[in-house]
UniProtKB/TrEMBL annotation:
Signal peptide span: none
Keyword Lipoprotein: no
Single GO term (MF): DNA binding
Keyword DNA-binding: yes
Keywords: DNA-binding
Region span, Disordered: 424-445
One GO term of the biological process aspect: phosphorelay signal transduction system
Listed name of the protein: GAF domain-containing protein
Native species: Streptomyces lasalocidi (Streptomyces lasaliensis)
Length: 445
């Protein structure tokens, strides 16, 4: 395969490929091993799906309907580019008996449009607006996998994890906020085997890039004074926008800037050393060398010493969330919270900041009791096993699906240590169990 993201090479026999994939899928579901012909992107997705507890005979759940769906769509950033999606993909979808679909960053379908007969057929597997097609819910599928791996991807036939989806082929590409680089969702084309062509993946990727360009034109003009912006929530490597540059920082440099942004008065070398390193044997020389490298990345004038501090105010998304919480704007804080702070960081001070901010947001959401905000939290990677928030959601929106998920979590957490919810020896944590986001156990366990 010349392009690992394309499902079918030109000239390949689709029928034979389907037979090979079906055998591979049965092998994986029976034995947990992936035969060699399966693409790496699909094999990795199958493994993530299985670890998330998705079964091959599962189905998508509709989470938003009627007024809730309409209100959510109206406020979503991708609403602004739906006319563009319809112009570029809508006619292609309708003429080719395909579907145009757009999902949010959690894999929740916001729009599904196209050929009426194809829509009715897709509706039988809940490929409808308001349904959640995240990988962690329905396994491998183009829109869900595209937002999971942040790459354009094509999924062909039996590459889908759930059997009822295997008659379909789809191609999707993530759409990013042009200012922050954050994934807003994905645009997808879904239909028959004819979509298993490199051109369909290239087409949907071009449409996603066009949408990002359009969003950039719609963005409000930037102020004349350049205030550096640091984005560190939900990212292992922070993004710094300053002086017209977008700098993706290393993990250590990300930790340093987050700490200095939170301490505008500055930190001494000893304070910074204790904040960054668990190992007491790390010397000040090591820290000074790291700061010298960071100064070279940032350029002159931004990082001062004695004490170490930033010479200009830096807008950090951590501070934005904290400020909105302090003002009582729970909805605004939840919207700005894109995930745990530098989730892979083990720097002691960053871990404390990460846990404190997450706990404050969780507490505010539980106290507010808004079912939509609670649902967004538990359907994000960091909140999928958050028992307290699931309980709050069950109290606010006691649907059968929510009660079933809560019961499953409580049963899992009540099981003997070292065993998962299926009664098997547990070897690894759930992939969505982000650092700094430990699951809570029921009272008395």
């Amino acid at each position: 395969m010349t392009d690992p993201w394309v499902a079918l090479e030109p000239g390949a026999d689709p029928g034979e490929r389907v037979r090979v994939l079906r055998r591979a899928h049965e092998t994986f579901t029976a034995a947990g091993t992936v035969p060699r012909p399966v693409r790496t992107v699909v094999a990795d997705s199958w493994r993530r799906s299985a670890r998330a507890g998705v079964g091959p005979d599962g189905a998508a759940r509709v989470e938003l309907s009627d007024g809730d769906l309409g209100a959510y769509r109206a406020e979503h950033p991708l609403a602004a580019v739906m006319p563009l999606f319809r112009e570029l993909l809508g006619t292609f979808a309708a003429d080719g008996e395909h579907l145009l679909a757009v999902c949010d960053a959690h894999g929740r379908l916001l729009w599904v449009e196209g050929h009426p007969a194809t829509r009715r057929k897709a509706g039988r597997m809940n490929f409808v607006p308001g349904a959640r097609w995240a990988e962690s819910e329905v396994g491998t599928n183009a829109p869900g996998t595209a937002v999971a791996v942040d790459r354009p991807v094509q999924v062909f036939a039996a590459e889908h994890f759930i059997r009822r989806v295997q008659p379909w082929t789809c191609a999707a590409a993530p759409v990013h906020d042009p200012r922050t680089g954050r994934v807003l969702g994905a645009v997808d084309i879904t239909g028959g085997d004819g979509l298993a062509h490199p051109h369909s993946l290239g087409f949907v990727q071009a449409v996603a890039r066009a949408a990002e360009s359009h969003l950039a034109l719609l963005a409000p003009p930037q102020p004349q004074v350049d205030t550096p912006e640091l984005t560190a929530l939900g990212r292992d490597e922070a993004l710094l926008c300053t002086g017209g540059r977008r700098l993706r920082l290393s993990r250590r440099h990300s930790e340093i800037l987050v700490l200095l942004a939170g301490h505008p008065e500055g930190l001494s070398g000893d304070e910074l050393l204790c904040a960054l390193y668990e190992d007491e044997s790390v010397t000040p020389v090591t820290l000074r060398a790291e700061l010298a490298r960071l100064r070279g990345v940032l350029g002159p004038g931004l990082l001062a010493s004695r004490p170490y501090r930033l010479t200009v105010p830096v807008t950090c998304d951590v501070a934005v969330v904290a400020r909105r919480l302090a003002a009582g704007s729970v909805t605004g804080a939840a919207a700005a919270y894109a995930g745990p702070l530098l989730p892979a960081s083990q720097a002691p001070a960053v871990v404390r900041m990460r846990e404190r901010l997450a706990d404050e947001v969780r507490a505010a959401l539980i106290a507010r009791g808004d079912p939509d905000l609670l649902a967004d939290w538990v359907h994000a990677a960091w909140g999928e096993e958050d028992l307290d928030v699931w309980r709050a959601l069950a109290a606010a929106r006691p649907t059968a699906a929510v009660r079933a998920r809560l019961a499953a979590l409580e049963a899992e957490l009540a099981a003997p240590a070292g065993w998962d919810r299926a009664g098997r020896a547990a070897g690894t944590r759930h992939p969505a169990a982000w650092p700094g986001m430990p699951r809570t156990r029921p009272a008395g366990v």
